[in-house]
Amino acid sequence: MGVGVLAIVVIVGLCYYFARNAEAVYLALRMASAVFGLLAMVSTIAFAFTGRYSVAIRCTAVALAAMAAVSFIGTALENYPVEMTNLANQADIKTFWCSLLPYGRQLALLHLASAGLGFGFGLMVLAGAAILPLLIFAMHYMGASSERLERTATRLTSIGVLLLGCALIGLACYAHTQDGLAQWLGMTAKLSLGWPICAR
After folding, report:
1. Tens digit of each residue's pLDDT (9 = 90 or more) over 57-100
2. What is the extent of the structural domain holding 21?
3. Number of domains in the chain
4. Which residue in 30, 35, 126, 37 sits closest to 80, CA to CA?
5. Can you give the pLDDT at residue 144?
6. CA-to-CA distance for 142 and 182, rounded, in angstroms?
7. Interior angle at CA 142, CA 137 and CA 145, nearest 5
8. What is the DSSP letter of 147?
9. What is the CA radius of gyration of the chain?
10. What is the pLDDT of residues 129-186, one digit of tens each?
């Protein structure tokens, strides 16, 4: 019971913080996605020229996931209610959360989950594959053997890593489509999102 209440308080606090800084968070995520996408494209070209086609294909997947994230993060930012940000900037946590209608709370949770777990964590998972060119350049500079470079490249672009990162980003992108929003609203319709914050 106590852990559940603490979890709710933490989630509400994160929603409040996110509402106050939604534009900055989304812009930072969008910039990171664009940089990761460009670096992954550089990796694709570099590995294709050196004949490591399996790694090049995996880097292409990272680039595509990052570019999809750039697009859908823009959509998420456009769809984030300005009223929610204004309310968060003018009120404390309790007033903010208790002033929201259930639909507003569902939206706040959707944006928190998609930005944090989907785009944020998804990009972190794929970061190794995205920064691969810089890593390989550094290892070449330090005189690392080609076998070690190959092992590092393979590990950072493993199928498991790619699937996890792409799945998280894919779910976050889907959440900001009409079907994804409708499904989220249906899944969270019965949650008691006001308790215990708004309990009198």
Report:
1. 888 999 999 999 999 999 999 999 999 999 999 999 999 999 99
2. 1-198
3. 1
4. 30
5. 64
6. 52
7. 85
8. H
9. 20
10. 878 766 776 676 677 666 766 677 677 778 888 899 999 999 999 999 999 999 999 9
Query: What pLDDT score does 152 carry?
Result: 72
Provide the H-helix boundaries in the chain.
2-20, 22-49, 53-79, 82-90, 93-99, 102-113, 121-130, 132-141, 146-156, 159-175, 178-187
Count CB neighbours of 6 within 10 A.
10
Q: What is the 3-state secondary structure (H, E, C) of 30-82?
A: HHHHHHHHHHHHHHHHHHHHCCCHHHHHHHHHHHHHHHHHHHHHHHHHHHCCH
Torsion on CA atoms 60, 64, 65, 66, rounded to nearest 10? 100
Q: What is the DSSP letter of 145?
A: -
Alpha carbons 103 and 194: distance in angstroms, whole number: 12
115-124: string of b/e by CB count within 10 Å (b at 16+)? beebbbbbbe
CA distance 98 to 88: 11
Quote the CA–CA distance of 23 and 19 in Å, as a whole number.
9
CA dist 175 and 182 (Å) reads 9
- pTM for this model (two decimals): 0.88
Residue 109 near residue 15, CB atoms below 8 Å: yes
